[in-house]
TrEMBL record:
PANTHER family: SUGAR FERMENTATION STIMULATION PROTEIN A. It comes from Loigolactobacillus jiayinensis. Belongs to the SfsA family. Residues 81-220 form the Sugar fermentation stimulation protein C-terminal domain. This is Sugar fermentation stimulation protein homolog. CDD domains: SfsA-like_bacterial. It comes from the Bacteria. Pfam families: SfsA, SfsA_N. Residues 12-77 form the SfsA N-terminal OB domain. InterPro entries: SfsA, SfsA_C, SfsA_N.
Length: 240
């Protein structure tokens, strides 16, 4: 995934979850933050950030904030990016779905409704329909990444519906796209969202496949790289 018109700036402040102030070419600009999560460990004063200029002249903000540099690592925080990257990676075979050969996939669509949920990807082979629900991961401590960074009833609802899809004959996948490099394992931040943790344990028991993929990230690009183990027994501690 390539962002056009990417520019480097410095983060200044975030007055609300949708807007940030950044310093671009010695000018303070208001930008749209493409992630409604807290991101407090990422968006720190004066960190380098990547801004993408919009070509829509009617927008109130000219730029989207899509990534930030934490230490030596760039972290993509664009909440829409995992869907596009995963779709492309499933098509190319860079993401392997257990039990589904890439060459057997006949249909692959984005944003398909099942019961009360809209899943990110629907696909099918000649004999097996499947759903893939995607979650972007931006929270990490060293080489351990965790989801979520804030309680999310929506995610628990999606997981419960994935179980019902599995029981109805679909193969269901919950796939975490880790929007950074240098991660060795992914866990669920159980202390942050106990209900989601319980839902994911139940989903795994019901046959829903849990997957995680790391990414190579630059200010202007995002691409999946490798499968990462999911360790639900790992306890996550935020960087203080």
């Amino acid at each position: 995934m390539q962002y056009p018109n990417s520019q480097l700036a410095r983060f200044v402040a975030r007055p609300n979850r949708f807007i940030a102030t950044c310093r671009l070419h010695d000018e303070l600009v208001q930008v749209h933050v493409k992630n409604t999560g807290r991101n407090k460990e990422i968006l720190q004063p004066d960190v380098p950030v990547a801004l993408v200029k919009s070509d829509n002249p009617k927008r109130k903000t000219q730029y989207d904030l899509v990534a930030a540099q934490v230490g030596a690592r760039w972290i993509n925080i664009d909440s829409q990016a995992p869907n596009q990257v995963a779709y492309d990676s499933i098509l190319s075979g860079a993401i392997q779905l257990p039990g589904i050969a890439t060459t057997d996939i006949m249909t692959l669509k984005r944003e398909v409704t099942f019961e009360d949920a809209r899943f990110d990807i629907f696909g099918s082979t000649a004999t097996q329909p499947f759903f893939v629900e995607l979650k972007g991961v931006t929270l990490a401590n060293g080489t351990l990444a965790a989801f979520p960074d804030a309680p999310t009833s929506r995610a628990a609802k999606h997981v419960a519906t994935l179980v019902r899809a599995q029981q109805a004959g679909y193969q269901a996948y919950l796939c975490f796209i880790v929007q950074m490099s240098g991660i060795d394992a992914v866990t669920i931040y159980a202390q942050r969202d106990p209900a989601l943790y319980a839902a994911i344990l139940a989903a795994k028991k019901a046959g829903v496949h849990l997957l995680a993929y790391g990414c190579a990230v630059t200010p202007a690009t995002l691409a999946t790289t490798k499968s990462i183990p999911i360790d639900l027994a790992q306890v996550f501690t935020e960087v203080s």
